[in-house]
Write a structure and sequence with these properties.
Elements (H helix, E strand, L loop, with lengths): L1 E5 L4 H20 L6 E6 L5 H6 L2 E5 L12 H23 L3 E4 L6 H10 L3 E5 L6 H6 L5 E4 L13 E3 L28 E5 L6 H14 L4 E5 L2 H14 L9 E4 L4 H10 L2 E4 L4 H8 L3 E3 L9 H10 L4 E3 L7 H12 L2 H14 L4 H17 L1
Length: 375
């Protein structure tokens, strides 16, 4: 049995595919199936070490991107995408997988084109409230469509779509809540704020947090995932800003938090400030109150839609980038953490939104389709 995964080059595409792959392997072992061969076709491996650990073979393919603004690259990328489709067709014909699983993004376009050409069954997953262009197109011929937000279901044929939630790696929930402070040097009696700007960090969030630190640290601890490229500069500037601050030890900047470190930080946090991509589903599963800061110009405005759809559950507040000033950020944190009843209600709303079995549900559907196709 051969299963080919494909997706764009972001962590929001990559890590859900890893979560599904883990469940595919677990279920196959549990039900004594022949171990499936797993492949990832994408422009970049994103995390080659993790692919190796999960025994997923990486197959490179080039692709372009259709931008919504005028750019010379829109022309050159037509040729790059065409070559990517031809290359993907040759590679997929040689491999001939039993099912292709698409996560969206332009990185998945060549593989999905080739799968359609050869009549290979396709399953897609959409993380956002409003699907991207590739998934909207693939939804016309995909055998099954899984969505993270119920609002996204309206964009796909009702008989083939299911609201599954977002697949998440089990490592993100490996640390019990009572052990969250272990290894982070957190003060047990001081509430902690975890700030996540995605796997690469977010300059806008970093700047807002940096400007807010003197006031935040009087009452809270701050754990910030700044992004590897941003860490040294941010740490140096924070050192200057907090040089004479008696609470400077309460600031904990990191370049990147791996799965177990992130689990530990989330367990120790009282509130999380985050972008509004697929991290929303991790916030929900952790049961943490959240402040969401959607990217103002994300593709299709999907982060804005994600943020407000999630906030309507009662689990999060939204601060738009245009309003992201230190006074507003500090006030929003105080509003939530200063009212324990409200914070508890937000936690309950988050847990009600979470769907922890998403990866398993999708993996079982993949295996069922793959086994039928294999015959």
């Amino acid at each position: 049995m051969k299963i080919l995964f494909t997706g764009g080059g972001s962590g929001g595409h990559f890590y859900p595919l890893i979560a599904i792959a883990e469940e595919v392997l677990r279920i196959a072992k549990e039900e004594r199936l022949i171990p499936p061969q797993l492949f990832l076709m994408a422009p970049e491996p994103y995390d080659a070490r993790l692919l190796f650990e999960k025994s997923i073979v990486f197959i490179p393919v080039s692709t372009g991107k259709m931008r919504r603004y005028k750019s010379r690259e829109n022309i050159t990328d037509i040729f790059r995408t065409t070559w990517g489709i031809i290359s993907a067709a040759w590679k997929i014909f040689a491999l001939y997988p039993d099912v292709v699983v698409g996560k969206g993004g332009f990185g998945s376009f060549p593989a999905l084109c080739a799968a359609r050409l050869f009549g290979i069954p396709v399953i897609i997953h959409e993380s956002d409230s409003v699907p991207g262009r590739v998934n909207k197109w693939a939804g016309k011929f995909a055998r099954r469509i899984a969505v993270s937000f119920s609002e996204a279901a309206q964009y796909f044929p009702a008989e083939r779509v299911a609201h599954t939630g977002n697949p998440m790696r089990k490592e993100l929930f490996a640390v019990p809540a009572e052990n969250g402070a272990d290894g982070l040097s957190l003060e047990l009696d001081i509430p902690a704020i975890l700030v996540l700007g995605g796997s690469l960090g977010a300059v806008t969030l970093n700047e807002a947090v940096l400007a807010s630190l003197p006031e935040l640290l009087t009452s809270y601890q701050v754990i910030l995932q700044a992004g590897r490229a941003n860490l040294s500069d941010l740490a140096a500037r924070a050192g200057v800003a907090l040089q004479n601050n008696p609470h400077k030890s309460r600031f904990h900047p990191f370049g990147y938090l791996a799965a177990e470190e992130l689990s530990r930080a989330a367990s120790g946090a009282s509130i999380i400030i985050s972008r509004a991509g697929s991290t929303i589903f991790e916030l929900a599963a952790w049961g943490k109150p959240a402040i969401l800061v959607p990217i103002s110009e994300s593709n299709g405005n999907h982060q804005y839609e994600n943020a407000y759809n999630y906030s309507r559950t009662g689990a999060a507040a939204v601060v738009e980038e245009t309003n992201l000033r230190p006074a507003i950020l500090v006030a929003e944190v105080a509003k939530i953490l200063g009212n324990s009843v409200h914070a508890a209600e937000m936690s309950r709303a988050a847990l009600s939104f979470a769907k922890l079995d998403a990866a398993e549900v999708i993996a079982r559907e993949i295996l069922e389709i793959a086994l039928k196709h294999e015959r």
